[in-house]
Amino acid sequence: MRTSFFKYGIALLLVSWFCSCDDEYVRTEVDKAISVNITALNSFVGDEIQLIASPTDGTYKYSWSSEDNAIATVDNNGLVIVVGEGNTNIVVSNGDIETKVPVTAIERIPLRDVILSSDVLEMFPGNSKTVFVTYMPENANDIPADEWVSEDENIAAVNANGEISVAGEGITNITYRVGTIVKTVKVDAAYSRPFKGPHILSADAPYELLAANFDTGGEGNAFHDDATIRNNTYRANNGDPGSPQVDIEGDGTNIGYTNAGEWLIYTLDVKDAGTYKVEVNLSANATTGAFHLEIDGQDVTGTVSVPNNGSWNSWRYISDPKMDNINLSEGRHRMKFYFEGAGFNLRGYRFTKI
User: Fold this and answer.
1) Going edge to edge, which strands form the sheet with 120-123?
2) Fewer Cβ neighbours under 10 Å: the N or C end of the chain?
3) Per-residue model confidence as pLDDT tens digits over 123-132
4) DSSP label at residue 324
5) Are 27 and 21 spatial neighbours (Cβ–Cβ below 8 Å)?
6) Phi-psi region of 115 (alpha: psi -120 to 50; beta: other; left: phi over 0)
7) In a 3-state reduction of DSSP, which class is residue 65?
């Protein structure tokens, strides 16, 4: 008897539980809503945008309307045409259910051109510089996607912000493209550059170059000098603060206190290719002076001994058969003056086409 009562009670509990669950399921209602493929429109006057309402299974019959037809109109299929500036809503409804799509409309101002802050850059490897873009007109709001591209990243790379970073020597182009507009920045990368140049060699006349006008670029690039800071203001006063070690006497008169193993670089631009005679202006107060000349890293003279004239400032041009026939092709070259022995002051050079 007790067993039957227990089984009967369990059965009643199970029936009650199932009825309770079924009752909750019946009472749960699905929220009715309309979704649209675009939730908000930020458009130019003249744009046409197709809105699509969901569900699309025929459950709803949609009605479309605009709260301000002076800003945007919409047809029975949800095609929106933006006709004026301002803010409004596109409304899609079915009975008492509706969804609003906000519309912000502005006049289109096309981009006509761009101006870059630089179109030619002379830079040293390891340095970087940002090129800035100015839109024309400056209030343009219809701006296509843009990109920066380097023709040779081994020379110079560029990021999306127009920052150009130089990696090695050479000349390459950086291109900025926005829509159909293309602008180019020429990047000339070099470890040293002419100071008070260009220094142009030609058949027109001999060219005299002061020794103090060696390249800019600093220690290890434009020169090597064993000294620390000298009392040198000539270079700094003329725009190169990176050469204080080199002892320049007077207002660029000459270079003194030279030591073996030091050197100076000069960038030369050869207009007329051919053979040149090089003479060196100096004064020696010892018999230990010697030097050689290099062109683009190659020794072209071998050791040239400096005759002693018993003075530090009795200037004269000296010549040597080793410097009489230096062949230079048209274009840019680097000449290195290498001090093999000390004991002389250096004033300058004279290049004569022969």
Assistant:
1) 120-123, 181-189, 170-178, 146-150
2) N
3) 999 999 999 9
4) S
5) no
6) beta
7) strand
